[in-house]
Specification:
Elements: H1 3-25, H2 30-49, H3 51-65, H4 72-95, H5 101-122, H6 125-131, E1 134-135, E2 138-139, H7 140-161
Helix pairs in contact: 1-2, 1-7, 3-5, 4-5, 5-7
């Protein structure tokens, strides 16, 4: 495991724990916080086992086997657009149902995390060049994971205080 993965794993584990704490302390949104804890626990497992990269490699192998790998440059931007649309629609639908600024902040952070993870799996070359650029001791993607997880943590801390 490299420094970038360690940062991502730490961010996701801390987020899962804070969401679990918010679930225990929240009377109005325990289900939401429990779901967020579960999501970040799964993201922690993914980070530890590098499952999203296995998925990415499997998709590349399947495209090559089907003879479709050469068309990836046409498909990847469409997939990124669908991912963005899914994130925006999901945010719009869920945000209206949530009570409290903490839950809404956490939802925004989770949407950002899922967008970064999805973008990494889709793997558009120009985007990868930005995500995997070193910034200090880790790659830019570690900062993106950490920033999006920090939004969730702030929301969980706010909800746990109520």
């Amino acid at each position: 495991m490299n420094a970038t993965q360690i940062v991502g794993l730490a961010a996701f584990v801390v987020t899962a724990l804070l969401c679990a704490q918010a679930a225990r302390r929240s009377s109005v949104a325990a289900g939401f916080w429990g779901g967020m804890a579960g999501l970040y626990a799964l993201l922690s497992v993914d980070m530890a086992l590098d499952l999203r990269m296995d998925l990415r490699r499997g998709m590349v192998q399947a495209a090559k086997a089907a003879g479709d790998y050469g068309a990836r440059r046409e498909v990847q931007p469409i997939l990124l657009g669908l991912l963005a649309l899914g994130v925006v629609v999901g945010l719009a639908l869920l945000a209206r149902r949530l009570r409290g600024a903490g839950a809404r902040l956490a939802l925004l952070g989770a949407a950002a995390t899922l967008a970064v993870v999805g973008t990494e799996v889709i793997s558009l070359h120009r985007v990868d060049a930005m995500l995997y650029r070193p910034i200090g001791p880790v790659m830019a993607i570690a900062w993106a994971w950490s920033a999006s997880a920090a939004l969730v943590c702030l929301g969980a801390l706010r909800a746990a205080r109520r």
